[in-house]
Design goal:
The chain has eleven helices and eight strands. It is 42% helix and 13% strand.
């Protein structure tokens, strides 16, 4: 097992893949949760553009801005003493213009103190990936279901089930790896395909809805903790049911205040 006090780096993740130790990744958007996840031993904290959904209440990840991502990332970085912090590049900051992509990635790294960026796509964003890497910024890739392309897909269904799309995913995974990304997220694809890609790549794969054969797994923290009750895909395992806990705590607080049981004299100052 990895030294619990040593900072997780891209090299750490590569070594974990080599020895067959699964990598744990969870999303984090604020200091308080990030501190808890870091202390628990999560290796990678992903400042996901899913903050657009679970924090801001948007229907998709598209509306969140670069400034907002930097804000969330800065809070997470301040909490992370050991975990590696990876930040999603928001929609519109890297598609079609590699110079703009590098500028956005540099802002994320300089203004938040993060350790790497993540972006979605394969061949279409390869120029941006290469330009960002040329500046010495580590890049995590993302293939399969790509939430920033949800309007193009028309829904959140499983990707790469047909032979053509599966072969394209294999091809793009190799392109990204050869370009120099340090890890690749595979989202909502058949488990067998994820296994094939994982075995074919020299870099770690991180799965979400991609079966048990990836080198690591990631979930959205609010989903895993049972705070987002309406979202229930097959791949999601809830490790807590905190929505009910929060509601119950609020009900008790309301009752105590209404009944003048809070605060007590013992909780007051003379």
């Amino acid at each position: 097992m990895e030294n619990k006090d040593k900072r997780i780096t891209t090299r750490t993740l590569q070594e974990m893949k080599a020895r067959g130790e699964p990598i744990t990744m969870l999303t984090a958007y604020d200091y308080t949760f990030a501190r808890l996840l870091d202390a628990a031993g999560i290796e990678v904290l992903l400042v996901g553009d899913s903050a657009s959904n679970v924090i801001a209440g948007h229907e998709t990840t598209l509306p969140i801005t670069l400034e907002q991502m930097i804000y969330h990332a800065s809070a997470v970085v301040r909490a992370a003493k050991r975990a590696m912090v990876v930040v999603d590049m928001p929609f519109g900051t890297y598609q079609g213009d590699s110079k703009a992509a590098l500028k956005a990635a540099v802002r994320i790294m300089k203004e938040s103190g993060a350790h790497a960026v993540k972006l979605e796509g394969g061949e279409a964003v390869l120029d941006s990936v290469r330009r960002i890497l040329s500046a010495g910024i580590p890049v995590m890739g993302h293939l399969g279901l790509m939430p920033q392309s949800i309007y193009q897909y028309g829904g959140y269904r499983v990707r790469a089930k047909d032979a053509g799309e599966a072969e394209r995913l294999r091809h793009e995974a190799q392109l990204l790896a050869k370009a120099g990304i340090f890890a690749l997220v595979l989202e909502k694809i058949p488990a067998k395909l994820a296994q094939e890609v994982t075995q074919s790549l020299p870099i770690p794969t991180i799965g979400i809805g991609a079966g048990p054969y990836c080198d690591g797994q990631v979930l959205v923290l609010y989903d895993m903790l049972g705070l987002t009750e309406a979202f229930s895909p097959r791949f999601l395992r809830r490790y807590a049911q905190l929505a009910g806990v929060v509601r119950e705590a609020c009900h008790r607080y309301i009752q105590d205040v209404k009944n003048r049981n809070f605060p007590s004299l013992a909780e007051s100052y003379e």
